[in-house]
């Protein structure tokens, strides 16, 4: 208490302007003073939660004003085990800011963050995941991926949103490692999403169709770039149930383009949604067929759109 009073009796001088420290409206709270950081360290090392909370508020205020508070990291990181919820939330806010710069010290608290992912408070769970995804150290990639996977099915929508925000951070830094890991994993999510497409509500169908369209355009080869003559003689044409192999003159018809099996599944599952009562869903299906389907879909789509327009009029 004495050190705080002696500090308040001093004046903070920066440049040409002199701020009396005992004036709360003077802005001296955010002026650079190394004694102030020493006081904050003493408050964080103490046993009273009220002092720790006050210290964390002042530190977050320094960060908000653009001040460098990285030298306080060792004193702050020790308080991740605090029982006070307010202190812990502010500690996590600080760690998100400086975890990347102080990786070695942040790694010492990995086990604490993992335990915090099971905390009853949704804010603590989300903050722990946010800190974990901010520690850009390759050795903890499996831990972060496991945390994201578990949090993506959390009961709290706030935690699920945090998990979704953590994916791009992980992807942007660990691209090579993720590509290696993904190459070894069996991919079933596309089939799962295709199975859910007809069961969810129409607005969910609209969002999912847009996502699947982007995925198909990115990950599947364009079926129109493949020469039909390259197919083997024993391979059935794509539209074997809708057309014959020869035309009326007896000449052999050209085979349908080679379509990836997963893309074929997506196109087949989306086809019934052309009968949806939601015009947005119908347009999303048409967009999927237009961008990802073979050229032979173009004429039926034009006929369907013309028929729908005449029927609505």
UniProtKB/TrEMBL annotation:
Disordered, as annotated region: 229-259
Biased composition (Basic and acidic residues): 229-249
Gene3D superfamilies assigned to the protein according to its UniProt record, in alphabetical order: Leucine-rich Repeat Variant
Residue ranges occupied by any Clathrin/coatomer adaptor adaptin-like N-terminal domain in the UniProt entry: 36-172
Keywords tagged on the record: Membrane, Protein transport, Transport
Pfam families: Adaptin_N
Cellular component, GO, one term: membrane coat
Subcellular localization: Endomembrane system
BP terms from Gene Ontology: intracellular protein transport; vesicle-mediated transport
InterPro entries: AP_beta, ARM-like, ARM-type_fold, Clathrin/coatomer_adapt-like_N
Family statement drawn from the similarity comment of this UniProt entry: Belongs to the adaptor complexes large subunit family.
Name of this chain's protein: Clathrin/coatomer adaptor adaptin-like N-terminal domain-containing protein
Source species: Leptidea sinapis
Lineage: Eukaryota, Metazoa, Ecdysozoa, Arthropoda, Hexapoda
């Amino acid at each position: 208490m004495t050190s705080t009073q002696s500090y308040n009796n001093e004046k903070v001088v920066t440049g040409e302007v002199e701020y009396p420290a005992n004036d709360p409206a003077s802005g001296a709270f955010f002026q650079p003073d190394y004694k102030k950081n020493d006081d904050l360290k003493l408050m964080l090392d103490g046993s009273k939660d009220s002092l720790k909370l006050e210290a964390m508020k002042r530190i977050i205020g320094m960060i908000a004003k653009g001040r460098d508070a990285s030298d306080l990291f060792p004193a702050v990181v020790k308080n991740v085990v605090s029982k006070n919820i307010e202190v812990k939330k502010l500690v996590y806010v600080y760690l998100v800011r400086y975890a990347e710069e102080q990786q070695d010290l942040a790694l010492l608290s990995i086990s604490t963050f993992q335990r915090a992912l099971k905390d009853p408070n949704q804010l603590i769970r989300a903050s722990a995941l946010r800190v974990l995804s901010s520690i850009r150290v390759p050795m903890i990639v499996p831990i972060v991926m496991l945390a994201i996977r578990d949090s993506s099915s959390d009961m709290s929508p706030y935690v699920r949103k945090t998990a979704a925000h953590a994916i791009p951070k992980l992807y942007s830094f660990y691209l090579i490692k993720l590509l290696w890991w993904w190459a070894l994993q069996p991919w079933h999510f596309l089939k799962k999403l295709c199975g859910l497409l007809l069961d969810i509500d129409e607005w969910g169908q609209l969002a999912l169709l847009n996502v699947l369209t982007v995925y198909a355009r990115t990950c599947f080869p364009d079926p129109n770039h493949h020469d039909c003559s390259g197919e083997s003689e024993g391979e059935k044409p794509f539209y074997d149930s809708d057309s014959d192999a020869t035309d009326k003159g007896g000449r052999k018809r050209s085979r349908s383009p080679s379509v990836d099996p997963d893309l074929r599944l997506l196109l087949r599952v989306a086809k019934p949604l052309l009968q949806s009562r939601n015009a947005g869903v119908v347009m999303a299906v048409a967009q999927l067929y237009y961008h990802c389907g073979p050229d032979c879909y173009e004429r039926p789509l034009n006929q369907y759109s013309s028929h729908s327009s005449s029927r609505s009029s």
